[in-house]
Amino acid sequence: MATRTRDDSDDEGVEFIHDDDGSITARDTETGVASFGETKAEALRMLAEALTLHEGGGEPVTDEDLEDWGLDPDGHAAVDR
User: Fold this and answer.
1) Strands, E assignment, the chain
2) How far is the C-alpha of 38 from the C-alpha of 67, rounded, in Å?
3) Is residue 76 domain-resident?
4) Which of 56, 62, 66, 73 is paired with 10 by a 20 to 30 Å CA distance?
5) 59 or 41, which is more confident?
6) Mean pLDDT across the stretch 15-42?
7) Are 29 and 11 in contact, with CB atoms under 8 Å apart?
8) Is 75 inside any structural domain?
9) 45: domain range?
């Protein structure tokens, strides 16, 4: 069974969930955004990236990107390569 702990060392509002498989999920309590990693530090790094993307960071996905991933830009269905 997973266990939950709250990081009270700062005002960031991060909850840690220690999963049965050994992974750790870090969840931002304000936004609900979560990410996981093998360690607490990795989970926090991944959470920081997820929060950046959640807030509009990153780069837009282009039609070329979709085609590279095997997706149809018009319907987002898988395409034959």
Assistant:
1) 3-7, 14-18, 24-28, 34-37
2) 32
3) no
4) 56
5) 41
6) 96
7) no
8) no
9) 3-68
